[in-house]
Design a protein that fits this description.
- This protein is α+β, with helices and mostly antiparallel strands.
- Among the domains are: 80 residues, Arc Repressor Mutant, subunit A (Orthogonal Bundle); 39 residues, no CATH class.
- Helix content is 48%, strand content 13%.
- The protein is built from eight helices and seven strands; from the N terminus they run H-H-H-H-E-E-H-H-E-E-E-H-H-E-E.
- Strands 3-4-5 form a three-stranded antiparallel sheet. It has a two-stranded antiparallel sheet with strand order 1-2. It has a two-stranded antiparallel ribbon with strand order 6-7.
- It is elongated.
- The two termini are 57 Å apart.
Amino acid sequence: MKGEFYKMDFRAWNIGTVDLGLEQEAAYLRLCHAMYDVGGPVPNSPRFLMGIFRCGNVKAVALVRQLTDAGKIQVTDDGKLTNRRVSAELADRAQLSAKRSIAGEKGGTARRRDADRGAGESGVGLDYTAGESRVGLDCTAGAHRVNTSNPLPSNDPVRAGASPSVSRGEERRGEKRRLPPDPRRGGAGRLRRV
């Protein structure tokens, strides 16, 4: 996925890898990246390890053995390589993705229901009752009412009160406006083209 990233607490990383050499730390990081990339455990094959570590077969196998001995990498029952933290982060990511997917399917109605529940508890928020909406802090029964029961159909110029052929600016150019009386001219108002 383009732009894929994960959070990394660099201080925790530095503390957790203090006993590793530079090659081991780099191999560990590359293994974690590979696990995030595939979304789970990675193969424990020399060919795969040589590719991600960019080294020979013997060196790749030795690095994995050192990381498993240090407890950084675990071997699954089916022989793949995994890491507890990466697995937990991937599970959290999948849970969040599923939650957002469900909210997206509801099309925003969940947010409105949540706001309704919050308004009743704290007195602040939105209150949708009988087709009306009251918004604000300490709203009184008749304050700030908006009628939401008859929404304006889109592209309906008659109900919107606008002429489809003449823009607002064109209407103003054609009208003449009477200015207030000028006391210096004897109180007579004059016409001004707008």
